[in-house]
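Example record

The entry below shows one chain as it appears in the dataset: sequence first, then C-alpha cells.
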Amino acid sequence: MSTFIPGIELNRRFYEEAVRPLLSQHFPALSYAAALIGPGSDVLGFDTAMSMDHDWGPRLLIFLREQDTALIPSLDKILRTHLPHSFAGFPVNVMEAADEPGITQMQQTTKGEVNHRISLQTLQGFLQYRLAYGGEQPPTVADWLTFPSQELRSLTAGVVYHDEIGELTALRAQLAWYPHDVWLYLLACGWQRIGQEEHLMPRAGFAGDELGSALIGSRLVRDIMFLCFLLEKHYAPYPKWFGTAFKQLDGATALQPILWRAERAASWQERESALCEAYTQLAHMHNATGITHAMPETVSSFHDRPFRVIQGETFARALLEQITDPNVQRLRTRPLIGSIDHFSDSTDLHAIGHWRAVLRELYE
C-alpha cells in the first residue's frame, strides 16, 4: 500500500483520473455533483496514516437529480466493472470489517468486479439520512437548533469536485453559518451555561470535593471552547477532533495554555485562577466582535462569597437584547437550553437524524 495521502487530495485525483472519465464516456449527458463531504476524518482534513485502517481510501459521493435515479443500477455496474482495482497504490475494493458491521476496510483485489465506495444518491436522500431535513425550504429556527454542529461541519467541510446541477453548492452556502439572530441566541446560551456553573466549581472545592470541582472545571473548559467556535463562526466537530479543531481558532493561541492549566490544576484555587484568566480572555473576544455594548473584562466576587466569576448571565442578557427575529425572540421567555450541542452530548442523539422530529418540539 502506498504512503499516506490526505483523503481530500487522493479523492480529487480519484475523481479526475478514474471516475470522471468513466462517467463522461458512458453517461455523457448526465448532470451530477461529485464531492467528499459527510462523516470522516478525511472530510475534516484531520486524517493521518492511522486513518487508513477503516472507512478511508478512494471514495466519493455522486449526487444525481431525482429524474436520473433510475440510472443508479447502470452507473453502479459501470463503476464495478471498469474502475481500477487500485488507485495511487490504494485498493479501490472494500470489504465490511468482520468485527464492526457497517465499517469498511480496503481489500486488495486483482480481478473481478470492484466493490467500490462511490455512493450514488440524490442530495435530498442524503440530507434526509444525515439531518432528517429535505432541503426544499430554508431551515427553520427549530431546525437550526436541532442540527448538530458536527453534522453541519461535515456538510460544509470537505470539497466539491464537480457540481453541474448546482444544488450541492447552493446547499453548502445556505448551511455555511447560522442566521444572525440564531447565532446571538446560541452565544447567549453559551454564556448562560458559564454563569450557571462558574461559582459551583470553587464551591465544590471549598467543600473539600476536589474531584467534583475538577469535573465542573472540565465542563466549563468545554463551554469556553465551544463559545470560541461560535464567536469565530466555525462549527465544532465531534469529540475526537474537538480539541484539534479548537487549536486552529484564532483565540486558541492565548486560551489553550490557560485552559490546559485549568485542566491540570491540583487544587480548586489553581483551577479558579486559570478559569478566571480564561473568562477575561473570552470577554475580550466577545467585545472585539462589537455585537453588544462593551462588557466587563474583569472578574468579580460571587455575591459575598470568596469566589471569582465573570457573571456569564450578564453577557447572555446583553446578547438577547440584540435579537429582533420574532421566531427567536419567543425563545427568550423560556429557559435558555440552547441547541442540541448545549443540552446533550449523546453520540446517538447527534449522529442519528430521526431524533430531530422529537427535539424540534422543544422549540415549537
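Notes for this example: The chain has a mean pLDDT of 95. The beta strands are 32-36, 60-64, 86-87, 90-91, 94-96, 104-106, 118-122, 159-163, 300-302, 305-309.
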